[in-house]
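To: structure subgroup
Subject: Chain for Friday's discussion

All,

I'm putting the inputs and outputs inline so they're searchable in the archive.
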Amino acid sequence: QVQLEESGGGWVQFGGSLRLSCAASGNKLRINSMGWYRQAPGKQRELVAEITRDGSANYGNFVEGRFTISNDNAKNTAYLQMNSLKPEDTAVYLCTADILILGDEYVALRSWGQGTQVTVSS
C-alpha cells in the first residue's frame, strides 16, 4: 500500500511564501515522478508542477517563475516552494505520484494525497 503525506499548507498574506512537502511511504517503491495539482471551489483541477525522478520539472502556465519544485529520491519526497503568492493561488493542493511497486510483479499506479489547503489573503 502506498501513502502520500502532505504538509506545509496554511494561510499567508499576499506576496508571502509557503513550502509544501509530500512524502511517499510504502514497501518496494520506485517513484517515477511527483507533483502537485490544485483545485479551487468551482474550478477544474489544474497542474501546478511536476518533477521526474531525474529532476526534469514542468509547471502550470500560471506559475510564471514563482514556484520551484524539487525532489529527494532517497526520501521519496518532493517539495514545492511557493513565493509571491496571490489570492488566486488559494486552493486545495493535492500531491500526486507515479509509482512503480517492485513486487513479484511490477505494478504501476498513480497515487493521490488527501490535499492541503493553501489560503492567500489580499
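Points worth raising on Friday:
The longest strand covers residues 91-102.
The chain has no helices and eleven strands.

D.
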